């Protein structure tokens, strides 16, 4: 089975616990979004996948076997901080990197041309990287991850610093690559983008994977939530047993329902006070989910 | 399956180093300037320098031909290089004006005539005067019943012993210049190349490209490739200069009278450059891996640069003038110092092949240890960006 499995990775830097038993999997042909606040362990996880860092415990597997050097060379990698020689021409640089990945000169040249054209930087291949705009540097970086037709894509914040057009191009490329059968793992802080693009999402917090699954799975909360647009304020809910106000903004109130059927009482209470313009189960966006997960204090979490 | 053999990776890295450097304007410009300076200096020396090293060309007419053996003997005894050729009586003036002869001797004893274009070269004059006087003396001796040949022999052997108060033998200026220049050249090459390696390492670290590179290869392969690439660049750099120097020296016949064996000096210089470069480059690459910003390179490699300065200064300021000085001799065996000083001693002709091989062996046995140590420091430090990694941290973490 072609899947990329991350199995209880643990890593500490001195006294700082960067990862503790982080596990998740990315299926072939799937786009997996990796979200979490700065310093939560995304980059560490990716670096371990690439063999740039050694984990203290745990392993990463591809098709059931631990990643070795040859498999790692089949990964397309985009490091978080852009890694390119500033004073080398973009085209030469891509050819060089492709050759490090094992392509011969002609194939490397061809791949460089194909991808720079595809990413809209075909005319800039003769320029030194430091002379390119940040967005274009980013495209060169993506091209560097793609020239050797990788089996797996691991991209650390591929969207940061891109203009909307570039974001579109990048999204398309990621979808194409996953359609080609590669598992695509990327991290991002742009949650709307992750929501739009990803088949599955993993939320990491302080080195632990606190939630992972499809968006629908993540939305499936223990206690359903309902949104009601009706009476202002929240005092009218307080008497209903099993219902709790989560958020209120003018006439819009989000209620968490802990007892089946309580939502009907909420609706009746609201109707008794006046017109109700909307009443629907809440479908929290990834941003909402993320905020909930990240802001909640998990007692099991232990020392960082 | 893409090939990823260990050495092909090292080679790819090395070739990138070579290409980026050799195709750079700085390299082309500095090499060009060096070649220009060497050829220009050689040409200047050849045309305006003392031409005593060139053989004087003396013509003799048939009348004076009898003097030829005596002229040769005296010239040899006095250390003057003289070439003698026969000249027809009616071609004397033409030969001097257009034929490149310095002087023509005509007439027979005692009425010998010397024809020159303007002045008679003093060395040549001494020879001719001595011969004429000797011949005149021989005539008298024979008349008095003596043996002119025996007297001539005695005269030739009577040479005063020169006792110099300064207990130094006369240095061959060509050897001194060669020693001085090789000292400077090897310093420039090691210093420049070493710093280039250090900056290259930090460039990769600060631009984070190292992370991408290390996803395809092991740290030691990257380091080995960088060192190898810069060794090739350095050999090219120094090779261009050495070839220019050899060509200039031979082309202008600058070294006819010198004991300097430029060929062997050049070969030893390349060998010492190689040894010195590998050692310093490994050291500098591993130290540079400790820091993440170009601004910090200077401070982290300064101890090593300091170590380089000592033998260099001793080498160029003491060795050419006082090659037997104990400090010069001792330092020329000590690893990390020998690459700067041994080539100078070779150029000065004060180090035998045995000395060179001993010094070389002392350095070469250190290299495996150095490879291990620097490989460890480099591998442990290269991915730790941010604050400077201490040497102890780099050594401890496996």
Automatic annotation (TrEMBL), chain A:
Is Nucleotide-binding one of the keywords UniProt gives this record? yes
Q: Which residues form a coiled coil?
A: none
* UniProt keyword terms in alphabetical order: ATP-binding, Nucleotide-binding, Transport
Domain ABC transporter: residue ranges: 4-231
For molecular function, the Gene Ontology terms on record are: ATP binding; ATP hydrolysis activity
Give the Gene3D superfamilies listed for this entry. P-loop containing nucleotide triphosphate hydrolases
- PROSITE patterns named among the record's database cross-references: ABC_TRANSPORTER_1, ABC_TRANSPORTER_2
InterPro entries linked: AAA+_ATPase, ABC_transporter-like_ATP-bd, ABC_transporter-like_CS, DrrA1/2-like_C, P-loop_NTPase
Q: Name one Pfam family in it.
A: ABC_tran
Q: Which family does it belong to?
A: Belongs to the ABC transporter superfamily.
What is this protein identified as? ATP-binding cassette domain-containing protein
Its taxonomic path starts at: Bacteria, Bacillati, Actinomycetota, Actinomycetes, Propionibacteriales
Automatic annotation (TrEMBL), chain B:
Query: Keywords on this record?
Result: Membrane, Transmembrane, Transmembrane helix
Q: Name one GO molecular function term.
A: ABC-type transporter activity
Membrane topology is: Multi-pass membrane protein
Any idea where the ABC-2 type transporter transmembrane domain is? Answer: 27-374
Q: Where is the protein localized?
A: Membrane
Quote the Pfam families the UniProt record gives: ABC2_membrane_3 (PF12698)
Locate the coiled-coil region(s) and give their ranges: none
Q: Name one GO cellular component term.
A: membrane
Q: Where are the transmembrane segments?
A: 26-48, 174-192, 227-250, 270-291, 300-321, 356-375
Protein's name in the database: ABC transporter permease
């Amino acid at each position: 089975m072609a899947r990329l499995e991350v199995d209880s990775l643990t890593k500490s830097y001195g006294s700082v616990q960067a990862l503790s038993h982080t596990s998740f999997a990315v299926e072939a042909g799937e786009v997996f979004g990796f979200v979490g606040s700065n310093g939560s362990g995304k980059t560490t996880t990716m670096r371990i996948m690439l063999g740039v860092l050694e984990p203290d415990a745990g392993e990463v597997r591809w098709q059931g076997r631990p990643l070795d050097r040859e498999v790692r060379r089949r990964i397309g990698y985009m490091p978080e901080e852009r890694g390119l020689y500033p004073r080398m021409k973009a085209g030469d640089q891509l050819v060089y990197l492709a050759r490090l990945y094992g392509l011969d000169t002609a194939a490397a040249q061809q791949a460089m041309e194909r991808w720079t054209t595809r990413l809209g930087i075909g005319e800039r291949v003769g320029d030194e990287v430091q002379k390119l705009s940040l967005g274009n540097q980013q495209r060169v970086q993506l091209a560097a991850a793609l020239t050797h037709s990788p089996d797996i894509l691991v991209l650390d914040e591929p969207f940061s610093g891109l203009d909307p057009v570039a974001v579109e191009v990048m999204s398309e490329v990621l979808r194409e690559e996953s359609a080609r059968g590669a598992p695509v793992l990327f991290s991002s802080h742009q949650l709307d983008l992750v929501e739009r693009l990803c088949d599955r999402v993993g939320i990491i917090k302080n080195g632990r994977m606190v939630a992972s699954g499809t968006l629908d799975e993540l939305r499936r909360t223990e206690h359903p939530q309902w949104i009601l647009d009706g009476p202002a304020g929240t005092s009218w809910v307080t008497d209903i047993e099993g219902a709790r106000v989560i958020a209120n903004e003018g006439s819009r109130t989000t209620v968490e329902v802990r007892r089946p059927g309580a939502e009907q009482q909420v609706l009746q209470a609201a109707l008794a006070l006046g017109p109700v313009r909307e009443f629907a189960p809440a479908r929290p966006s990834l941003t909402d989910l993320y905020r909930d997960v990240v802001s909640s204090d998990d007692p099991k979490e232990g020392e960082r | 399956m893409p090939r990823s053999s260990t050495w092909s990776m090292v080679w790819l890295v090395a070739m990138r180093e070579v290409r980026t450097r050799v195709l750079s304007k700085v390299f082309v410009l500095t090499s060009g300037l060096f070649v220009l300076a060497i050829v220009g200096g050689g040409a200047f020396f050849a045309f305006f320098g003392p031409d005593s090293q060139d053989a004087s060309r003396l013509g003799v007419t048939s009348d004076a031909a009898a003097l030829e053996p005596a002229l040769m003997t005296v010239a040899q005894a006095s250390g003057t290089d003289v070439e003698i050729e026969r000249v027809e009586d009616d071609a004397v003036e033409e030969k001097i004006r257009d034929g490149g002869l310095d002087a023509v001797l005509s007439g027979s004893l005692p009425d010998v005539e010397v024809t020159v274009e303007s002045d008679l070269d003093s060395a040549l004059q001494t020879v001719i005067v001595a011969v004429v006087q000797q011949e005149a003396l021989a005539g008298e001796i024979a008349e008095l019943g003596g043996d002119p040949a025996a007297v001539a022999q005695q005269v030739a052997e009577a040479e005063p012993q020169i006792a110099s108060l300064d207990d130094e033998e006369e240095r061959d200026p060509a050897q001194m210049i060669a020693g001085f220049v090789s000292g400077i050249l090897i310093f420039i090459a090691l210093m420049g190349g070493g710093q280039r390696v250090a900056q290259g390492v930090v460039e990769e670290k600060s631009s984070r490209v190292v992370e991408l590179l290390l996803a395809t290869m092991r740290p030691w392969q990257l380091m080995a490739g960088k060192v190898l690439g810069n060794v090739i660049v350095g050999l090219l750099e120094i090779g261009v200069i050495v070839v220019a120097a050899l060509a200039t020296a031979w082309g202008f016949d600058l070294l006819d009278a010198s004991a300097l064996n430029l060929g062997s000096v050049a070969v030893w210089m390349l060998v010492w450059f190689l040894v010195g470069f590998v050692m310093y480059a490994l050291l500098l690459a591993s130290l540079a891996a400790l820091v993440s910003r170009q601004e910090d390179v200077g401070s982290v490699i300064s101890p090593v640069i300091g170590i380089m300065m000592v033998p260099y200064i001793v080498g160029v300021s003491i060795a050419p003038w006082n090659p037997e000085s104990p400090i010069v001799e001792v330092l020329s065996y000590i690893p990390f110092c020998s690459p700067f000083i041994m080539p100078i001693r070779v150029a000065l002709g004060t180090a035998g092949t045995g000395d060179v091989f001993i010094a070389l062996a002392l350095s070469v046995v250190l290299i495996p240890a150095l490879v291990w140590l620097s490989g460890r420091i480099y591998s442990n430090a290269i991915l730790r960006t941010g604050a400077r990694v201490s040497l102890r941290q780099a050594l401890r973490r496996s």
